[in-house]
Specification:
The structure holds two protein chains of two kinds. Chain A is an alpha+beta fold. Helices cover 20% and strands 29% of the residues of chain A. Chain A has 20 helices and 50 strands. In chain B, strands 1, 2, 8, 9, 10, 11, 17 and 18 form an eight-stranded mixed β-sheet that branches. Chain B has an eight-stranded mixed β-sheet with strand order 5-6-4-13-14-15-12-16. In chain B, helix 1 crosses helix 8. At the A-B interface, strand 3, strand 6, helix 10, strand 31 and helix 12 of A face helix 3, strand 12, helix 7, strand 16 and helix 10 of B. Strand 31 of chain A pairs antiparallel with strand 16 of chain B. The structure holds flavin-adenine dinucleotide (FAD). The site of flavin-adenine dinucleotide has 41 residues of chain B, from helix 1, strand 12 and strand 16.
């Protein structure tokens, strides 16, 4: 056991049991998997990805390149750093060989998203962040303070003093003050992982497996007036031979393990450093009972530290270095200096200095510049809304950090001596055994090969060697790789820079980002006001956009084909009713409403009389049909536009975009009223009777209520709108009412139709009926390459209007090419085959056989059904020069067969339109 | 814990030499602007197929550091329209021999692509595309949900999903490759042939004489040119602006992301439009995924995070086992999108300026094919038949090749 008494913030009164690589161990609350394993002397956690070398914990936290584990229980999770896994009772984990494993079953844990707004977001609850948050809180600002570790304090875990008090005490006092402040949210175990423009920061709060039945993790989407990056710094290793051996560790990591977890990571310790900071680790470990020796790569060692070392019997050697290590699974000795003298040790601590954790500054484009005194890249320049303080800004001495973060209000700390930092990327040795990225088994030799191959950019070196691409995203290896590359190229490191820091700062589970947007909530499920009725009637639904639409209503034992034939026959024979409430509806209001619609529809809308209805087509700039629907003129300055179900939002966007960007002078307002109005189509020769029965005071005769007109009425005081619009060619009424009263009105219509055998019908029947009449469905019979002319709708394209969206494109030569694909009908000559929708159409060869590819295509089948009215299958198709080919027989490859079908006009049922008025 | 063969060991070694770092010469017969995949492939085929080697590839940053370094490497040819199918299938055939041609291990892996259908209209569009592919001699199948599950068992084909999978199109010859290696392979062969690859050399302007460009101005001085071949992807519109040529190109950020390295779970490529995401698992084991462009225009290689969140929701919806995979890294490129989602290749109003752009979100797969056909176009001063349908003037004539509705997810 390497647990030491009197250290660590673990709860020694309680014991947790966990399993690692099949062996049972114990831990205490407050332990990470790394600390618990190290406490038991387990130093090798896994093997490396390429070379299969042993790997262990090298860092304190998310920067660790070595200690990767796979969680098996409570739920499988791949590739976590042991340093970041809190031990829970029953935890089962194992080491990994470079790849993680996903669970075979779905994760049932919950994940939340939360929107947060604040004046100031402080990232990091170390000394800089705590002071910054306190200062902002005292100024009465709304403050959010997040810190990724389970407990606050950052590096203030050890022996430092602030305002004359032991640092941990000071931390507790600040935390208490923040907790008492009215506008402060303080979250630990919460990692700010991405920073985007305008003060937008994503932070992931880890809340524990199944904690209180709530979310396992919460993704905070924070909009901050100002982002204070106080994320500290990450210690940098020094490269030497076999520096990847377990037992080689960052100096700060050993110190952290001691102070947070009471774990002494080694008994015989060598500290190899070119930076003063490692001396604190040396002394702390010494005081905890280890024997310690410091090897300082600099010729000048810090006098104060050296004196304190001497007092504690810690020898300090100047101007020497570590060249390699000995050992098998764990370091046994350091090879020191030119002579490679063996210095026995079971823990080799390294410090090559520090890299400011400026990731969140970089995410929003903040530049980093090399600081030769700091021997690091640090934030340079100003960014709007962003401040970097403390070690993240390259300010390392505690007193300076406090002053930088707190201004006048700042607490104080004793001054520190500073000996010039050394710049040491690697020591002399065999490059093939000098590991730069331990997670990727990438060595100095790999960098040398990249440089030898002609690469001069760190981005190329990264890609050639894979350095910096592992789970830690190069937190320790990135700048090291720049340094080694610079050295090999004989160039200053500042000319190379670093590779780009990209979100996320630390890995984030997919599910945490998905949040609640899964299953039914992945996309809102929209149902009409009458949905419950459809469900009760046994409807089968289809997804149309976000809507659930009743597709058909099978009677017991019926399949869809049978149900649709029955529904179709009912509509053409008597009367049917369909819920059309999903149609998009846009209220267009204002003195220039007509002008806007004239610009957007191909036909004239401004001439429409109040009380009348007109069908219209909208095209894109390219002249291709993109939506259609009916337009009701409600008043001189008011229209109701309907759109296809799936396209409603898109059409509204489209109208707004034109209005706001091209014609802002038009006095028009657009309002979506899709959800407000329910619409029912009552269609069939008996529809007049049914509607007349329900609305006794409305004269529904053809003379009083003509085709393509509308009338307002009331039913028991509830406003209702009736319109004579038909999508089936039959006499038909559209009945509109507010969604609240819709179920009742639907029920009344159904009841009133009972004597006529009123039949509810779904979208499939609606599709068949309209296809029999040659009415296209935009998006099914069109694909963005079809003009109104191609659809045979030249009548809907105004020749009078000076301009409208798409008009110019109709003048292009291609638009008038007679070989354009045109909408036609197809009748399979065998009168029995229903052509699969989507089938391609080819010329029918004399032998009736499909030739080998390539076979020129004439068009494709867009809609295909069995028709009750025709007693046979039929289809609509887009066929090149189709209208000139009426009567021609073409071939449709279906599986291995070539089906013959004859081209015809689009209107197959009631071509003279005799049924429209009943 | 110890696997007998460490999983990462399978990655190939790179050649020991890739390219020189020459100083620009005062003049070249052909100046290729843009050292991405397309520029480098064009250079290679100019040398290999046409013996033209007095060529410079000018790259403003590090070689192939644009979209070439950022794409998700999906390669397929199952496009709807004849014109698209022809160029992408030509490209796919070249991919099938590219490793040998370049003498470089590009990790081309033909693992097939499933394009999922979730609605009735998806099914119609899918059948239509499969039938068109077959008639064009391109491998394509329509599969029902059970067959989808056989090919990729981790896809959620149950009803317990917002938009149930109704089936998929399948192109077995589709695949992925290692983008960097492809770029380096082309660069190495071009360099060997004597072509100068010049990095950190931004083209800033052009010197014009009548309807010809005589010199390109660069951050490393003026360079006289015979022909200018523009391969600048997202920055093409900016360059052509200098010449007063307007193009219907919109530059958008397009993001992608990877997970950590995972044991093999995903044997193929899955793309979905309705549940918008596409995913493959790369050789080392990371899941690579992307979706659609960010809505706004821009040249900053950064996207917005809600696009990633939405993608993750789609991924977990389609692949419930991905829930605890981790997002490790996300990034963005700048893609040049045209109104009909097809490229712009061929002549400009300037007699010696040829353009290759507008590949938007899907030009990686075209790399060898377009390099081959564009080199031919440059060499002969007329559009190769494979690129002729993609002339800039189609936006005037209206002869669009509209792959929007047709191609589903456009990668
Ligand atoms: C996230 C993402 C995912 C993608 N996924 C896929 C996919 O799965 N499958 C697929 O087929 N395609 C995909 N693509 C698209 C594909 O990457 C591009 O279409 C293709 O790479 C473009 O060709 P390129 O390689 O030549 O472009 P680039 O690599 O962008 O090359 C253009 C080069 O021109 C340089 N340049 C620009 N201006 C100048 C100047 N003034 N002077 C000198 N040089 C200049 C740029 O620096 C750049 O290097 C994706 C793209 C992105 C961004």
């Amino acid at each position: 056991m390497s647990r030491v008494d009197g250290y660590g913030r673990i709860d020694r009164t309680r014991t947790l049991a966990f399993t690692f690589d099949g062996v049972g161990y114990t831990a205490h609350p407050g332990d990470t998997l790394a600390s618990a394993l190290l406490a038991h002397g387990v130093t090798t956690l896994g093997t490396s990805i390429r070379l299969g070398r042993p790997r262990g914990v090298m860092g304190a936290w998310t920067e660790d390149p070595g200690g990767l584990v796979q969680i098996e229980e409570p739920f499988p999770e791949p590739m976590l750093l042991a340093t970041t896994v809190d031990v829970v009772d029953g935890l089962v984990a194992r080491g990994v060989a470079g790849q993680g494993r996903l669970a075979e079953v779905a994760d049932t844990a919950r994940y939340d998203h939360r929107h947060v707004h604040c004046d100031v977001l402080v990232v990091g609850a170390g000394p800089a962040g705590l002071v910054a948050a306190r200062t902002a809180a005292r100024a009465g600002l709304d403050v959010v303070l997040v810190d990724d570790r389970p407990t606050p304090g950052g590096t203030l875990t050890g022996t430092e003093t602030v305002d004359g008090r032991p640092a941990p005490e000071w931390v507790d006092a600040v935390v208490a003050e923040l907790a008492a402040a009215p506008h402060v949210t303080h979250l630990q175990a919460t990692t700010a992982f991405g920073h985007y423009d305008d003060g937008f920061v994503l932070a992931l709060e880890r809340r524990g497996e199944g904690s209180d039945g709530g979310a396992r993790a919460r993704d905070h989407r924070i909009r901050a007036g100002r982002v204070v990056v106080a994320a500290g710094a990450i210690e940098r290793p020094i490269v030497f031979e076999d520096d990847d051996r377990p037992g080689v560790m960052l100096a700060s990591a050993a110190r952290d393990l001691l102070h947070r977890h009471g774990v002494l990571a080694g008994r015989e310790v060598v500290v190899f450093t070119v930076d003063d900071s490692a001396y604190a680790a040396a002394l702390d470990l010494r005081q905890a009972g280890a024997s310690v020796r410091v090897l300082d790569g600099r010729s000048e060692v810090p006098p104060g530290w050296t004196r304190r070392c001497a007092e504690l019997d810690v020898p300090v050697e100047a101007g020497t270095d570590v060249r390699g290590t000995l050992g098998s699974d764990r370091v046994r000795a350091a090879l020191v200096g030119e002579s490679r003298r063996e210095v026995p040790c079971d823990l080799l601590l390294v410090s090559g200095g520090w890299n400011p954790t400026a990731h969140l500054f970089s995410h929003v484009g903040g530049p980093l510049r090399w600081d030769p005194e700091l021997v690091a890249f640090r934030p340079a320049g100003e960014l709007p809304r962003t401040t970097v303080v403390g070690a993240a800004n390259g300010t390392y001495a505690l007193a300076d950090v406090l002053r930088e973060a707190g201004g006048e209000d700042a607490p104080t700390a004793p001054p520190e001596e500073i000996t010039p930092r050394g710049m040491l990327w690697r020591t002399a040795g065999d490059p093939a055994r000098q590991f730069v990225d331990i997670a990727r088994d990438a060595t100095v030799a790999d960098i040398a090969r990249a440089v030898g191959a002609g690469m001069t950019s760190v981005e190329h070196v990264k890609r050639y060697t894979t350095i910096g691409t592992a789970h830690d995203q190069g937190k320790t290896s990135g700048v090291l790789a720049s340094g080694v590359t610079a050295e090999l190229l004989g160039r200053p490191v500042e000319s190379l820079g670093t590779t780009t820091f990209r979100p996320p700062f630390t890995p984030v589970p997919f599910a945490a980002l998905a949040g609640r947007d899964r299953g039914d909530l992945f996309d809102p499920v929209r149902t009409t006001a009458v949905h419950a009725w459809h469900v009760a009637a046994g409807a089968v639904f289809e997804d149309v956009g976000q809507w659930k639409r009743a597709r058909h209503y099978p009677a017991p034992g019926e399949d869809m084909a049978a149900a649709v034939l029955r529904e179709c026959a009912a509509v053409r024979g008597s009367v049917g009713i369909m819920d059309g409430s999903t149609l998009g509806k846009i209220d267009v209001r204002g003195p220039d409403a007509g002008v806007l619609l004239d610009h957007l529809y191909t036909n004239l809308m401004s001439t429409l009389k109040v009380g009348r209805v007109r069908y219209g087509v909208m095209c894109g700039n390219d002249g291709m049909v993109f939506d259609d629907g009916t337009v009701l003129r409600l008043a001189e300055d008011r229209f109701l536009v309907t759109t296809t179900t799936g396209n409603a939002a898109h059409v509204l966007d489209w109208m707004e975009e034109w209005l706001q960007t091209e014609w802002p002078h038009l006095r028009v307002r657009l309002t979506s009223v899709t959800e407000q109005w329910s619409i029912f189509a009552v269609a069939g020769p008996r529809s007049r009777d049914v509607v007349g029965r329900v609305f006794g005071d409305v004269d529904v005769s053809n003379d009083a209520f003509g085709f393509m007109t509308w009338q307002d009425t009331t039913l028991d005081g509830v406003p209702v709108r009736l319109a004579r619009i038909s999508f089936s060619g039959e006499l038909a009424f559209e009945v509109s009412v507010d969604a609240w009263h819709a179920p009742d009105l639907w029920a009344r219509l159904v009841a009133a139709g009972a004597e006529d055998g009123i039949t509810p019908y779904g979208t499939e029947t609606m599709h068949v009926l309209r296809a029999e009449k040659g009415y296209p469905i935009i998006g099914q019979d069109t694909d963005g390459t079809v003009t109104p002319h191609d659809l045979g709708m030249s009548w809907a394209v105004s020749k009078k209007k000076p301009d409208f969206v798409g008009k110019r494109s109709f003048a292009r030569p291609v638009a008038t090419d007679p070989q354009r694909k045109q909408l036609v009908s197809l009748l399979p000559t065998d009168a029995t085959t229903t052509l699969p929708e989507g089938s391609q159409i080819v010329a029918l060869p004399d032998d009736g056989r499909l030739p080998p590819p390539p076979v020129p295509m004439l068009g494709h089948v867009t809609s295909s059904y069995r028709s009750a009215a025709l007693g046979r299958p039929f289809a609509l198709a887009l066929v090149a020069g189709g209208r000139d080919r009426v009567g021609e027989v073409v071939g449709i490859p279906v599986g291995d067969m070539l089906i013959a079908a004859q081209i015809g006009g689009t209107v197959l049922v009631d071509p003279e339109g005799a049924r429209r008025d009943g | 814990m110890n696997s007998p063969v460490p999983p990462g060991a399978a990655l190939p070694d790179h050649p020991d030499f890739l390219w020189r770092t020459p100083e620009p010469k005062p003049s070249y017969d052909v100046v290729i602007v843009g050292g991405g995949g397309h520029g480098l492939a064009t250079a290679h085929y100019l040398a290999q197929n046409h013996g033209i080697t007095n060529v410079a590839v000018l790259e403003r940053g590090w070689l192939a550091g644009g979209n070439m370094a950022r794409n998700t490497t999906l390669i397929r040819s199952n496009y709807l329209w004849d014109e698209s199918a022809a160029i992408y299938e030509h490209s796919l055939k070249l991919w099938e021999g590219l490793e040998d041609d370049l003498g470089y291990p590009i990790l081309f892996s033909q693992r097939g692509v499933l394009n999922l259908a979730h609605t009735e209209q998806d099914v119609r569009d899918s059948v239509r595309r499969v039938e068109a592919n077959r008639l064009n001699g391109i491998d394509a199948e329509w599969l029902g949900p059970d067959e989808v599950a056989k090919i990729c068992p981790i896809v959620n084909v149950s009803d317990d999903i917002r938009y149930p999978v109704q089936g998929a199109t399948y192109q077995p010859r589709a695949g992925i490759a290692k983008h960097d290696y492809v770029a380096w392979g082309f660069a190495r062969r071009a360099d060997e042939a004597g072509i100068d690859i010049i990095q950190d050399c931004e083209v800033t302007d052009f010197v014009v004489d009548g309807d010809r460009v005589t010199t390109v101005r660069t951050s490393r001085g003026d360079i006289a040119c015979g022909t200018v071949a523009l391969c600048a992807a997202g920055h093409t519109s900016v360059l052509l602006d200098r010449l007063g040529v307007r193009t219907p190109l919109q530059s958008h950020p397009l993001q992608a992301l990877v997970s950590e390295l995972l044991e093999p779970v995903h044997p193929t490529i899955v793309m979905s439009n309705a549940v918008h995401v596409y995913v493959s698992q790369a050789h080392k084991g990371e899941l690579v995924m992307g979706a659609g462009v960010d809505g706004y225009n821009g040249y900053g290689q950064r996207g917005a995070f809600h696009v990633i969140e939405r993608q993750m929701a789609a991924a977990v919806e389609l692949f419930p086992v991905f829930a605890r995979a981790h997002l490790l890294r996300s990034w963005a490129g700048i893609v040049d999108v045209t109104p009909d989602a097809s490229p712009i290749v061929g002549h400009t109003p300037y007699a010696n300026v040829l353009v290759n752009a507008g590949w938007g979100t899907g030009g990686f797969k075209a790399t060898p094919g377009i390099g081959w056909a564009f080199a031919d176009t440059v060499a002969h001063g007329r559009p190769h038949p494979l690129v002729a349908p993609f002339a800039l003037d189609r936006f005037v004539t209206g002869a669009l090749v509209d792959e929007h509705g047709a191609a589903g997810v456009a990668h």
